[in-house]
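Quick entry between incubations.
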Amino acid sequence: MLEIKGIGVSNGIAVAKAYCLVEPNLTFDKYEIKDFSEEKARLQRAIDLAKIELELIRNHAIKKFGKENAEIFSAHLLVLQDPEMRMAIESKIDKGINAEAALDEVASTFIATFESMDNEYMKERAADIRDVSQRILAKLLEVDLPDLTTIAEDVIIIANDLTPSMTAQLNKQFVKGFITDNGGRTSHSAILARTLEIPAIVGTKIATTSVEHNEMVVLDGSTGIAIINPTQEVVNEYEQKKEAFEAEQAALRAYIDQPSVDRDGHHVEIAGNIGRPDDAEVVKANGGDGVGLFRTEFLYMDRNDFPSEEEQYIAYKTVLEKMEGRKTVVRTLDIGGDKELSYLTLPEEMNPFLGYRAIRLCLEERSLFRVQLRALLRASIHGDLKIMFPMIATLDEFRTAKNFLMEVKAELIEEGFEVSNDIEVGMMVEIPSAAVIADLFAKEADFLSIGTNDLIQYTLAADRMNEKVSYLYQPYHPAILRLVKNVIDAAHANGKWVGMCGEMAGDEIAIPILLGFGLDEFSMSASSILHARAQISKLSKAEMKKHIDHILTLTTSASIENYVIENLL
Amino acid sequence: MEKQYKITSSEGLHARPCTLLVSAVTPFSSDVQLTYDGRSVNLKSIMGVMALGIPADGIITISANGSDEEAAVEKAGAVILEEGIGVEV
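Done. Structure below.
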């Protein structure tokens, strides 16, 4: 029995025999040719044959994944017939180089260009070019590429990497999952695995060298763990997990179009946390009531310069449009400290979590902050935008930020831009000082959103990245619960709503307590939404009140956790 | 014959918009060029266009040279506007 670990990119469990994909032998010699026009004709024939094959794959993909997901093969067909690539290859042939070597040299140049690009998406395009050029090469060498459509028994595919065209050939009836050496979360294969809803693990580095053809494999796409040659015990264990997972998925799907209400019909909001505009789709696909936290840092990362107002405007507008009128809470830039930008030089700090970051930095670097606020305000007419400021510690900070926002708004209106008049302006409560004086903030903010990840680490003075003190990361610590309750009570006393956008909001132990406290909005990762909605539908806020009275008398995190497990799950 | 556009598609000129643009101009006999940030590429070459890595908000110029140059530039422009890839500047 051997365990290997990679990145779980598509949830679910599979137990089946390994099908080790034999990499086709595409080695070739570089040699001198004399008949240039015959060599070019040979290249043309190879391209024509590859085109026929690729068209079949595209049609297959359209049928299986729908037109939108098959679009990449239209791009492949254009790569196959790319005039610049053809010219480059032909000019090498004219120098007496055989077609195989000429193709390989040209394709390698393009692949290197894409791989060196400073952008995850563009890097992935190198795989597309490799896929297409290998197909032409195989035709030149008269070698067959693996045909996955012939698989007719239950298998888990083990491969170095699955090319997009191979993934399109997967038949869900027999292919129960796949494990690859390479790839990441945004690889084609990962995306298609999620579309097909088959479990998958990528980036294991060692799958192909650790697994033999026909060996038994257990794959858990949620944890990224695969077990080779499992004992019968392990197989039984995973078979059970698989059944439980599938039953749960089926049961949860019933909640997609349901309102988020408790057993008595008390309404709450269950929203999603997002980091990129595309994530909004995932929130909708999971039935989210809105976006409770849009982290805008992504716009600033993996690049060489600040994003322009226009670029940000487009990103915010995209999210608002995708959410179709559902509530969308955007958090202004939270960088500095441990989140660095290559193009913004900040002095190194002894305690980055306690340092110059988030709203502290934005209030100092006004020009940077102005660009983001302008983009947000301009986008506000495209949906239900709410803006919140991160890391607020004092009332002055909130007032300064809000006044600046109003100033920027006035500027925009003067310039002739249209700006919504219904934008709520709130703040994150993630610093203990803000939680303690939540009553003062609630008079001035339109809403409060509790960021538990930081609130816990600041309250218990424990760096959550430090394993030595990770035992202090206690969401159910009586101090945390009292702070959370204080924030909720203070907001409600002032007629304001309260959300929570940390991990805790989607935690099944915390949910009953938070419901009892009267939390209005639970914002979590999209994959937790249905689970939370199902859990809340079985609870009663009114009934939770008496449990809350008892929970508040308990003295330790462990005793509170045990009480919930024994009485409320 | 040339026209300028600003890319508004949120992910920039990615595979999908490139596919649409390249497919649209390929049938024309004229040479069609796309210029971004001082670099010009053949708009019939998907790899050339993708390799420019044009982001949202990038300004591109489409130009053509040949017997059907006007029709080619217009067709490219129509695709950009209809598919929400960009706006004219």
